[in-house]
C-alpha cells in the first residue's frame, strides 16, 4: 500500500532518458552499498583509530581506501534505538517502544513506514539484511508462532532478502531466521519462546549453574542454550539452534553470497555482525589470539569478516563502485553480563579511546563510534574528517546519491550530508541530538555539548560505566575538553539556556540555526 501512497520521484530520470548522463555519472548514482555494522565495538577498539593494543588490519585497509570519521555518532547508546534511527531516519526518542527490544518483540518498524531499504528497493536495488536484527518480528510481541512465517517482518519493510538473528546473541530464540521464517526447524520439536515465564522442566542458568560453560556476571540467567544461559525462555527447536562459535562465519558467508548473487545489479546490503556483543564466543580461528580473552578475539573475528567482504568485492570487480560503510551501533562495554575475562585481560586497552562513558552512556563513548566510508570512484583515499555526523543522516544522504526525492514525512530527522560524508566539505551537522540508555537527551554542535538533566543513576556498577545522567545540567566544551571532565554549566548559564532551548526546539520538531 505504501508504494501507492508515496511512490518515488526520480529527479534524474529525464536526463537519463535523454542519455545525457555519462556512464560514470550513472554509476555514481547507483553504487552498491554495503554497511558493515558492528555491535558494541568502540572508538578505541580498532587500530585504524590509533589504538596500539589491538591490530585490525582489514579495517585499516578499508580506512586507507576511504575516509575515516573521528566525530561520527550512532543516534543512541544502545542497539535498538540506533538501528531504528538509522533505518528510518527518525530519532528513536520520538517513537515509543524503541528501547532495547526483547527477543519476542513485535516488529518495531511497521510496513507503513518508509525505510532506507524501501528507498533502495524502489530505486531498483536488490536489498538484503544479514545479521543481528533487534527490531522485532511479527505482529504482536510475545504472541508470535515461531514455527510459522513471522509477519510483518524484514521482507515487509524493504528487505527482499534477510538472514538474521531475531534480537541479540544473549536473547532467545537462539536460531537463525531467513526471510522471516526460522530455519532448520523440526516440525516434531516446535520452538516456543517466552519472556514471562519458564517452560516447566527446562533448566535455567539460575537453577542449574552446573550446566553452564559460560557463567553470567549479571542477568542472563534464564534458558540455557549451548551451555550459555540467556535472557528469556525457550523450549524445543533443537535442530534450529545456532552454534555460538560459528555465528560470525555463518553470517559472513551469507553476506558474501548475497554480494555474489547480485554482482550484476546494484545492491544494498546491511551486514550487522554479532561481534563483539555478549556472549562472546569467537570461532576456533580466533580463540585465544588477541591475548585479551574472548572480547579481543571477537574484535579480530570482526576484522576477519571485514576482510572477507572486501576480498569478495575485489574478486568480483565491484570494489570501485561499491560504497562500503563500517560503523557500530553504540559504544563499547567490557563486562556486559558474562564472566568472560574481558575485565581481567583488558590490560591497557581502552575500548572507548580517550572518551568518557561507554555503551548506555550520554558521554561521548556512548555514541562516538568508529566510522569509515570507502568508495573508490568518489572518495579520495586516506582522508580523516572531524565533521559532526550521525548515522541517522545516511538515509537522506543516500537519497542524494540516488538523486531521488523522499516521500513526504519520510526520514524526518535525516540530513543530506553527501559532501561531508565524501570528504568534500569539512563541516557536518549544525546540531545533533543523542540519546542514552535512560532516554536522557543531549545536544551538541560539535563544540559545545549540553546534557539535559534527567532521571537515572549516574553510574552503572555492573557494567562499570558512567551513564551521564544527572539532576543538574551539564555543559562541556568538546574542543578543549573532549573527555568531558569540566562541567561548565555553572559558569555559562546563558549558553546552557540557549542549548536547552535548542534541544527543546528539535524535540518539538523545529530545527534551529547555529548559536
Ligand atoms: C542489556 C543486557 C546486555 C545487553 C543489552 C543490549 C542484562 C543484564 N544486560 O539489558 O547484556 O544485551 O541489554 O545490548 O540483561 S544492545 O547492544 O543490543 O543494545
Ligand atoms: Ca549494541
TrEMBL record:
Keyword Hydrolase (UniProt): yes
A Pfam family this chain is assigned to: Sulfatase
Position of the signal peptide: 1-23
Record's keyword terms, sorted: Hydrolase, Signal
Protein modification: The conversion to 3-oxoalanine (also known as C-formylglycine, FGly), of a serine or cysteine residue in prokaryotes and of a cysteine residue in eukaryotes, is critical for catalytic activity.
InterPro entries associated with the record: Alkaline_phosphatase_core_sf (IPR017850), GAG_Ulvan_Degrading_Sulfatases (IPR052701), Sulfatase_CS (IPR024607), Sulfatase_N (IPR000917)
UniProt modified residues of type 3-oxoalanine (Ser): 79
Limits of the Sulfatase N-terminal domain: 31-403
Record GO terms (molecular function): hydrolase activity
Family: Belongs to the sulfatase family.
Protein name: Arylsulfatase
